[in-house]
Specification:
Shape: rod-shaped
CATH class of the largest domain: Alpha Beta
Helix content: 55-70%
Structural class: alpha+beta
Number of strands: 4
Order of helices and strands: HHEEEEHHHHHH
Number of domains: 2
Number of helices: 8
Distance between the termini: 106 Å
Radius of gyration: 43 Å
Mean pLDDT: 78
Length: about 290
């Protein structure tokens, strides 16, 4: 059996094949760069494509990528055109942003090979893919820019709201000091004259403490543990903090001792404290320890 002889590629064919592979790899590397610019991509493709041609010193390449066009060599390095008709080829790809590659030998000295024409079509197809990516990157940049603009506007709005809230709190504190504080002092004096000096002093202190907490703005209302308690529970906690027993609190408030114990139990439950363990003062943000 006689096997057919295989044709051995010539040195010239191998060089052309090597140039073709170099062009494909180099163009793919160029078009995969992060933040690729359309003008840079078009100019790079024109330069690489010219180098892959059979006569790179004589060919002229024009590349169109969307609305960007680049030529190699540029107008300053363009070869003189002879009287002979130029040899030319072109390929177009893409629909959203049409891309094309045109090549010509202005001196008309050579025709393009099938390999070169195939390479021209491949280059146009790669450019079309790159054009879609560049367009998508542009939309993404615009989206990020718009998001940053909205975030900046939102931050400015939130800052203005915080300034307005601070102004409102300041005005409320000033109004309390100017108008309510004297009334509290007068009420305490009336109660003291009626023989309830200690109870009046305690209630006045509680009212002032509650007002300071509400007007300080140091923490959102949902984060203030005192606001989780009812007024009676808070009153019992304050008396426990002052060192009174459940029996003494019951006598002072004219309620049953079991009622005091129930208020203490409910306060610990609302503040998430285990039974008879932990410090209510810590849960309520105070400095002195309260043992319920």
């Amino acid at each position: 059996m006689i096997l057919p002889e295989r044709s051995v590629p010539s040195a010239g064919d191998l060089r052309e094949r090597e140039k073709e592979l170099d062009f494909v790899y180099s163009l793919a590397a160029l078009l995969s760069k992060p933040g690729l610019d359309a003008e840079e991509a078009a100019a790079g493709c024109a330069r690489l494509f010219a180098a892959a041609m059979g006569r790179p010193e004589a060919v002229r390449v024009v590349v169109r990528l969307g609305d960007r066009t680049a030529a190699f060599p540029d107008e300053g390095g363009r070869k003189a055109v002879s009287d002979r008709p130029p040899a030319a080829m072109a390929a177009v790809a893409g629909s959203r942003a049409p891309c094309g590659v045109e090549a010509s030998y202005p001196d008309g000295g050579s025709a393009f090979s099938e390999r070169e024409r195939s390479l021209c079509s491949s280059a146009a197809a790669l450019l079309a893919v790159a054009a879609e990516r560049i367009e998508a990157d542009g939309r993404e940049r615009l989206g990020r820019s718009e998001l940053e603009r909205k975030n900046a506007a939102l931050s400015e709005l939130l800052s203005r709201i915080e300034l307005e809230k601070a102004g409102i709190r300041s005005a409320m504190r000033a109004a309390f000091d100017a108008r309510l504080s004297p009334l509290l002092s007068g009420l305490a004096g009336v109660a003291a004259a009626a023989g309830k000096r200690d109870e009046a002093a305690r209630l006045e202190a509680r009212i002032r403490a509650e007002a300071r907490a509400l007007l300080s703005g140091s923490a959102p209302e949902g984060e203030d543990p005192r606001l989780r308690l009812s007024l009676r529970e808070l009153e019992v906690c304050d008396l426990v903090a002052s060192g009174l027993s459940s029996k003494e609190i019951a006598e002072l408030l004219s309620i049953a001792k079991s009622t005091v114990e129930r208020h203490r139990h409910n306060a610990r439950r609302k503040l998430g404290l285990p039974a008879r363990e932990g410090s209510l003062a810590t849960a309520m943000g105070r400095s002195s320890a309260i043992n319920l």
